[in-house]
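> @MW can you paste both from yesterday?
MW: sure, first one:
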Amino acid sequence: MAAPRTITILGSTGSIGTQTLDVIGRRSTEYQVRYLTCNTRVDDLVAQARVFQPYGVAIREESAWRRFQELYPDFAGPVLRGEEGLCEAAADEQNDVVLSAMVGFSGVVPTMAAIRSGHVIGLANKETLVSAGAIMTAAARAHGATLLAVDSEHSAIAQCLVGERFSDVARLIITASGGPFRSLPANEFHAITPERALRHPNWSMGSKITIDSATLMNKGFEVIEARWLFDLPSEKIDVIVHPQSIIHSMVEFVDGSVKAQMGVPSMLVPIQYALTYPVRLPLDVPSMDLAAIGSLTFEAADTERFPCLRLAYEALRTEGSAACILNAANEVAVAAFLAGDLPFTGIAEVIARTLDHMEVVAHPSLDDIVAIDGESRRRAAEYLSN
């Protein structure tokens, strides 16, 4: 019997992290948890640690780190803290797989620590490749790390490419549900509340990514991710709205053939595929009933009503640090919208103004990216205050 694979989960208390533990729990003899990490949700981390008995934990926020030790004083392993602790967990030499599922830019530096250690990385943190795609992929090549997509769209593309020659790819087609406002007239966008925007029609996700789905920024991020994961220019990556979310993405080849990966909406499938790649193992999820589904429909993505998608394409074509600025401004704007301090239509406006007033660095280092992220947030916050 093969030894269990050792896995560290960066962001174990979030949506992807908890679903990853669901997958691991179904195959408890095949996986051993090395580290679980979180930012502030320490009560959830304690509950996870009691069930999965990891070797150690890492907690970014100081008060949460202290609270963990109060709640679980008999935890036997290391209790690491701060970004340094997250990086130590990510780089641990015992890791077979690091699942990067932290939300936002906070996942960039710990993911780089895993890359520099040459690990297999299941990548669910979009901001890693959005903010620093060129740097991350170059580091992966230099250190022999493997980047496996966990997003359902990129996992679908990777599955469609199995057995194919990459030189035969004509374009990638990323599907989008269209979010909760797919058919809402533009003149009603000003009245959208956070409560309405958080009601996604098909997927259950964290609040930040759910708002990104409502603005279609999520699809813009996925285009940027696809550019770095699959090394294709923006003009070969398209987005199409597919409200049923049954086709998760497609690949068109030079002979006109198109391969699609399909299935009922469930993140358990791409998570397990990343953990077990290159083999498939049984998974207890609902079977797809095409007769019950009845029809699959498609629409063009509307970049006039959803300008965030257009801004993402523009940032990708600009290259350099443009996508880092885009991501930082988006995080600030989404947080302001969720707090009730910015209208829904203001999200794209804040991003556009930040992009217009930040200088783009052509070939940034990781230190540059961290500094640019901070300055972009400051600029975006200035626009909000005005």
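MW: second:
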Amino acid sequence: MWETRAEDELFRIYCTNCGNKLIGDADKGEQVCPSCGYVTAGQADEGPEWKALDLEEKSKRVRVGSPTTLTLHDLGLSTDISMEMRDAHGKYLDPTMRATVEKMKKWQSRTRTSNSQERGLAIVLAKITEVCDNLSLPKNVAETAAHIYRTSVRLKVAKSKSIMGMTAAVVLLACRKCGVSRTLKEVARAAGIEKGAAAKYFRLILKDVEKDYVPPPSVEKHISKLVNLAKIDPRVEHLALYLSRATNDSKISSGKAPAGLAAAYVYISCVMRGEHLPQREIAEFAEVTEVTVRNRCRELLDNYIIKQKLGWAE
């Protein structure tokens, strides 16, 4: 005989025939014994009471809101008045009611932020979302940037600081933490500030908020980004990645910008593959100077011997 337990008061979790633990079938609302096949009904269906045949029908019938997000000051828990200006039957509102709804929408946006701190947080989070959209960054980068800024607010680091400076700093740090290749110049350009100002606030965030070391994007990520921007043959990218792994030495990479090394690997790979791509164009895509590309290529060729095997095509 098998022992009864407190969980069996609502429904059985052990088989009455063999005593083994039952497994649930959520689709049928049943419980099945995996040993003897005994079936018992009574499992609660935790799904919705409606059915949908496609994604469009599902989006229309679902009655829950969007998930919480750190990119909104209220975590997205409040509701917004729609911009469609339609009633419950789908008809457009008359001019009088439209003016009333506009006033309601204005006062709703004002009452969502009860004090100056919430208003400032809402402004900065909106700027973070805007910069991430301009750079075509994934959603996890925007969420990470919002979390970093919320931490800086809690530590009172963001007080009396430039809005766009802090925005550029947290977005750049979020890109590094998420492994997305974006340079300081790109983030500063998207935020509309000078590169030096963005670098100053980035150092402030690293010093007072992010205590752990966050490494910059690797040379491999810069190579992939450069090949995608220049629309080069993928075989060139494969060769450049192979060269970067084969020549991964501290005497080459120590103190060097990853973008310059990536440009050198891509240029050498283009020459070996017979792709005609001048150093000037590679330097423009990598946002470095031609002198940097030439110096990195010279250092690589002086320290390593690169051999290429030639084969005859039948």
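> thanks! The chain has four domains: 6-41, 75-112, 116-208, 219-303.
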